[in-house]
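chain below, 415 aa
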Amino acid sequence: MKFDTIIIGGGLSGLVCGIRLSQKGQRCAIVSSGQSALHFSSGSFDLLNKLPDGSNVISPQSDISKLIEQVPIHPYAKLGEPKFTRLASEAQNFFNEIQIPVRGSLKENHYRITPMGTLKPTWLSVEGYASVNDKEKLPWKKVSIFNIIGFLDFYPRFIAEEFAKLGTESDIKLFNFEPIDHLRRNPSEMRSTNIARVLDQHINKLSQILNERSGDSDAIIFPACVGLDYSAVKRLKELVNKPILLIATMPPSIVGIYTQQYLHDYFVHMGGVYMLGDNILKADIENNNVKRVYSYNHGDIPFSGKNFVLATGSYFSQGLIATSERIYEPIFNLDVNYSSDRTKWYTDKLFDSHNYQHYGVKTDDMFRGLYKNKPIENLYVSGAILDGFNPVKEGSGAGVSILSALSIAETILSK
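prediction:
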């Protein structure tokens, strides 16, 4: 099987890269082992919320020079300030053009509302999900927070308490919804995905409840257990006579599942080949170029390509494997940046920044993977598997995934 580019990993970074290449006429294949981190998405994409020294970031565009100075091996440092700014702007256009509507700006972070009601800075938010511009004050005097009786992955009282600190009154509305009664027979079935499959089919009935019970509130807050079919959210907003804002629940994430499926479908629509449930096991490398890769499902039948992109994620998706002695990349055995002293991988405090979170595959400035300190000519590395950044503490995970994917696509297309 021959392709222009073969992408290993079907999460956010792999899909963005695959779609961009397909838009420009490349024949691409994505090989994905299964669920990606998108299934835990909050409905927002973070670009840069904190500098490595702990300083808060209000404007990613303004503070990128400080980041590059503090961590010269950071993925953003490899892009450089001008390219970082350009690609961050292109990313917003990318999502809007493929009809995943997002709001935000790299000039100034806005704030998403978390499942606990707190405000966290972010870069881009999917339209319809609760976010505000001012962290000191909410734009509503009073809101109605709705929740379905028996749904335990959403916490209206926590949200109401946080809103009160910002001067907004909350009216909590619990309601029963007969079409989901069959889910109550087993508490484990009362999850956001199962509820969404039902609510998406009963938008008229749901909108009637919200309209009748929201009283004099300025807006309605609703758990994101609707919208596996995003057209259902659009219909709900049309039928409800007040602004309705969704707050992501504890995983699984409806907006994440929807985004993953939408990007997958768009990639396939553009002519891409998406192979789900398969793992790349090994590769043939000749004259410092990857020629072929072999998967578990296809055995001795190779995938041949001109370019290869490794977007397998970090420890969670086994893009990196950590043993008691070392951390390694299992497909190409690329160079990994980590300390040989295991006691330096972590600290005794759980919520500190741990060194293992910075570990990843080494690349050159073009994101070509290094093997024995030498870049492999046609093998690019994208997303969470990269070294030099802490996606959790910096709030940079989605940004690194998206911008590295767009940069790599640009490099491949320039050949």
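The CA atoms of residues 132 and 252 lie 24 Å apart. The radius of gyration is 22 Å.
thats it, cya
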